[in-house]
Amino acid sequence: MSIGFRAFALAGTLLAATLPALSGTLDEVRKRGSLSCGVSMGLLGFSEQKPDGSWAGFDVDFCRALAAVIFDDPRKVTFQPLSALDRFDALKSGRIDILSRNSTWTLEREAGLGLLFAGVNFYDGQGFMIRRDNKAVSALELNRARVCVQAGTTNALGASEFFTTNSITAELKTYPDGPSTLRGFETGECEVMTADNSGLFAERLRLARASEAVILPDIVSKEPLGPVVRNDDVRWYTLVKWVNFALINAEELGVTSANVGEAKRSAKPDVRRFMGVDGADLGPKLGVTADWAARAVAAVGNYGEIYERNVGSKSRLGIPRGLNQLWSEGGILYAPPIR
Amino acid sequence: MTIRPPSLPRLSAFTRRRTGLILAGLAVMAISGAANGRQQATPISMDIGDEPGRVATAEQIVEDGPFARQLVFFRSAEPPGTIVIHTSERFLYVVQGNNRALRYGIGVGREGFQWSGLVRVSRKAEWPDWTPPPEMIARQPYLPRFMAGGPGNPMGARALYLGSTVYRIHGTNQPETIGHAVSSGCFRLANGDVIDLFERIAVGAKVIIRHGASI
Amino acid sequence: MMVSASSASLIRAGIPAILLLLLGGCGTTIDESVTTPGALTERPATFRNEQLIGKWGVASYREEKDRRRVEAQARAQCRLPYVIAKGPSDGVMMHLADDAKLYELRIKGGSDGKTYLGPEAPPGEWQDREILSITDKEMIMRFVDPEVHGRYGTFIYVRCPG
User: What is the value of pTM for the model shown?
Assistant: First the structure.
């Protein structure tokens, strides 16, 4: 009896440890030999297709990191450019394994569409652009300003709500699309232009004299962006989520694409665990190898490197880290520890 | 007049002849106190040495791009007026309170990576004098052993001295090095920017120097 | 005529010459800084090469108000002296601007009445220094090239004891 019970328990343990979820996404990706990644159809700094057909950008690099974790090869990704309308259907129908496309995490998208956001990798939000000669240093100083905003966006509502809440009298001027909104600002029909912060930095580059416009540090709305997966494969969701955490943790630990080789010999326990030198069972628990996190960093760098290269100080956009700085360095990025 | 760093109005003859100066530009200041601070290898350096006497006008600022002076979101528990230097990012922040800071692009020299921690501004100087360290004289024996402060001085238009250390925040006659790890100096700003900083910061202000984690 | 000539030389000389103009504060500075290279013929010099030989404390300045202070600094720099030795052809071994190699230089009198120090070439060449004064204890010189002079300022050499 006791023997029988132990045998049963043993079988149960084995089952839990070795059996993959039925038709798991990770196994399908492995069988296919490449990751299918949904990106936007072209968004400066986030996903851009180069003349030679290759893809680059912040959202692109996340999929490359995931491919590196799975295949030890960041090139094993098929990018699928998707419109805002098609993106969630493409994910639901299984055409893509992951959506890495500046999508805001909301309740409706998780509970209503049956999706899961695997964390946040870019905190965006509504911001304000003014002319340099305007001495305002805060959005609270925009009283009596004329504000250009694109019609039909959440930004029109957001601006209206922000001004009402703060007893600011401002005139909202709406325009049918992005270019006409920018033109309104450039020609002086407005003193202020409002849009999501990342969008303002991209739009500013289109101005004849970009240096004459200043983007205020205020972020007045929540637009948390992150990778999205289906909600029927928790194992895949967990892997994607921890790849995001790993990139952030790498920056916090000081592991970079330049030093990832020597990091294996680090004496620091948290670096050794990150590299899979200690706690070598952590990667296999996610369904990947012990050096999974090191592979991601070797392929695309840590979070800070990815940010600066694509949208930060080494890119044309030059978006300050702001909210997307580590929690310990002035921002709010906070990844649970790898242990 | 303001210019963008990559397009200096005039590159000196010296720039053309600056071969072999990478190591020569060793130190505007000697290294001390390194044993107590966290060490970090200097990131990839700009292949450039000090160019004593290279003239940059006092008005030069970083006019555009990420290293231009700008207000940014910055969560901090430090009081307004505190300077926070992130060497690996190449930014210097002046805390403004209300989750914001004024951010300046900086160049960081090898000496700037030797020490991290909290100090206070102990002294401020306009157009500081410059004494090239002996290592530099050995490589560039034609240098004067002392150069009175002025537009051609590698120390630039202003200097903020940090505590009793040999470290300082100073200007530069090479504004195109902002945003890079340069081979010498501590924390350098374009002259126009260091003048702006100088006006905002009082003697006694807190200065926090951070390097980012090392493996 | 005078106006157009001097503005042309300012453009050629660039910022350093403008600086000289500002710092010098008098008209003669411009004339001195725009010596046309190679236009002079050599005259007997008032100083001798041997006067330069020895150990010197070296410092530089740009503004006259700094001169006294810098003189004292030059004296203090005898800890790390600049050593001038006799050359093989009766010249002196010294550096040119921005070049770590030693060259044999000699003193040359110019037809403009000034004294120059430089390699074998007509007096007043771009690589030359102009010697403003030499005594047993101190010498003052500056580079002829206005761009180089603009960067380095005027050099004071104070003879080190012993």
Answer: 0.77
